């Protein structure tokens, strides 16, 4: 491991929400420093104007255009651009010799036909799909370590995968219905009628009743056929956070003791995944408020009978669902201790 080596990073799309989270994490990272915060729309303006909570960490540093950025001096790039806009920029960065973590959806799905189905676009760089590592370390650590390109992971997919990963690895899943609730920041910084806070606040809204494009990642990475999966996405009254409730039908009878053993075996070695206690009852299933601002994921479960269980996970969508997992992946790619820069505790109450 490169425990003392220093690395330089550039961030594309640094003015957005996930770009701001990357800046927040890297502001205190001991081995990765930001040499350029790239933003076409904010070029020339101080970082602290767009991200006022970071003003003291990036004093005198302005957003720059891509052409102004010292790309050739950097070791790694974080690309936080919109879906469909990222792939060609990623290709340029790889050609310049950088390692790349792409937070968009452009490299999450390894089949260009599947990408077209879910995103309605022809993939701009299908030639790079095979070399991209899916960027969820709990699932894909070995491939990430040796990758030059790591994809981002959908926040709803992250929460869903972490909820049912132990059962999928054990081959125990007959079917799963995922009921996912998400905070408003999942919609990004540009408001729409559906996402703008005055319209969304205090509402209970179903966004997708039966399926969501992040379901494609769950199917791909857990090797579960889509006919065994469904996902309902709803809004919740929060800025941050995702809660995924997985109603699982098992293909084998299990006791609660056996279920605990399966989850403990999988997650006892994971630095950012914690199991919720069986008691007290109000803490058995995780509330996203308990992980806000951190890279943690909480998982809790209960057995209804010997073939049905409810598994619930909670993450901060901007952290473990985006920028946190991106930095976690970058640490692995650069040979840095995986937890570096990511051991901040959640903020509570909030």
UniProtKB/TrEMBL annotation:
- Main location (coarse class): cytoplasm
Query: What pathway is it annotated to?
Result: Amino-acid biosynthesis; L-arginine biosynthesis; N(2)-acetyl-L-ornithine from L-glutamate: step 3/4
Pfam families given for it?
A: Semialdhyde_dh, Semialdhyde_dhC_1
Q: Does the keyword Acetylation apply?
A: no
Q: Where in the cell is it found?
A: Cytoplasm
Look up the record and report any one GO term of the cellular component aspect. Answer: cytoplasm
Q: What is its EC number?
A: 1.2.1.38
Gene3D superfamilies, from UniProt? Answer: Dihydrodipicolinate Reductase, domain 2, NAD(P)-binding Rossmann-like Domain
Q: Name one GO molecular function term.
A: N-acetyl-gamma-glutamyl-phosphate reductase activity
Q: Where are the active-site residues found? A: 155
- What are the recorded Gene Ontology BP terms? L-arginine biosynthetic process
Which reaction(s) does its UniProt entry say it catalyses?
N-acetyl-L-glutamate 5-semialdehyde + phosphate + NADP(+) = N-acetyl-L-glutamyl 5-phosphate + NADPH + H(+)
Query: Which keywords are on file for this protein?
Result: Amino-acid biosynthesis, Arginine biosynthesis, Cytoplasm, NADP, Oxidoreductase
Enzyme superclass (EC): oxidoreductase
Highest taxon of source: Bacteria
All residue ranges annotated as the Semialdehyde dehydrogenase NAD-binding domain in the record: 8-147
Record-stated family: Belongs to the NAGSA dehydrogenase family. Type 1 subfamily.
Name the record gives this protein: N-acetyl-gamma-glutamyl-phosphate reductase
Q: Which gene encodes it?
A: argC
């Amino acid at each position: 491991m490169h425990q003392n080596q220093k690395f330089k990073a550039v961030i594309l799309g640094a003015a957005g929400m996930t770009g701001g989270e990357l800046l927040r994490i890297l502001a205190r990272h001991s081995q990765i420093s930001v040499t350029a915060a790239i933003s076409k729309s904010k070029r020339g303006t101080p970082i602290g104007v767009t991200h006022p909570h970071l003003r003291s960490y990036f004093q005198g540093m302005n957003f720059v255009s891509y052409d102004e950025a010292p790309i050739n001096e950097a070791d790694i790039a974080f690309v936080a651009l919109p879906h469909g806009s990222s792939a060609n920029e990623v290709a340029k960065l790889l050609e310049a010799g950088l390692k790349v973590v792409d937070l968009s959806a452009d490299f999450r799905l390894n089949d260009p036909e599947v990408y077209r189905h879910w995103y309605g676009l022809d993939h701009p760089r299908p030639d790079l799909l095979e070399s991209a590592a899916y960027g969820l370390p709990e699932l894909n650590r070995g491939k990430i370590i040796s990758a030059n390109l790591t994809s981002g992971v959908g926040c709803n997919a992250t929460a869903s995968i972490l909820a049912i990963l132990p059962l999928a690895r054990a081959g125990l899943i007959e079917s799963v219905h995922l009921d996912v609730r998400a905070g408003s920041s999942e919609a990004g910084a540009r408001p729409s009628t559906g996402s703008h806070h005055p319209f969304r606040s205090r509402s209970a809204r179903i966004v997708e009743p039966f399926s969501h494009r992040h379901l494609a990642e769950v199917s791909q990475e857990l090797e579960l056929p889509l006919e065994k999966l469904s996902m309902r996405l709803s809004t919740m009254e929060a800025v941050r956070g995702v809660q995924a409730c997985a109603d699982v039908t098992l293909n084998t009878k299990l006791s609660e003791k056996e279920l605990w053993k399966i989850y403990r075996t999988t997650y006892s070695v994971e630095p950012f995944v914690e199991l919720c206690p069986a008691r007290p009852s109000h803490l058995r299933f995780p509330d996203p408020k308990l992980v806000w601002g951190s890279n943690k994921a909480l998982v809790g479960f209960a057995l209804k009978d010997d073939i049905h269980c409810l598994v619930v996970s909670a993450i901060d969508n901007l952290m473990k669902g985006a920028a946190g997992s991106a930095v976690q992946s970058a640490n692995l790619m650069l040979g840095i201790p995986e937890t570096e820069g990511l051991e901040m505790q959640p903020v509570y109450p909030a």
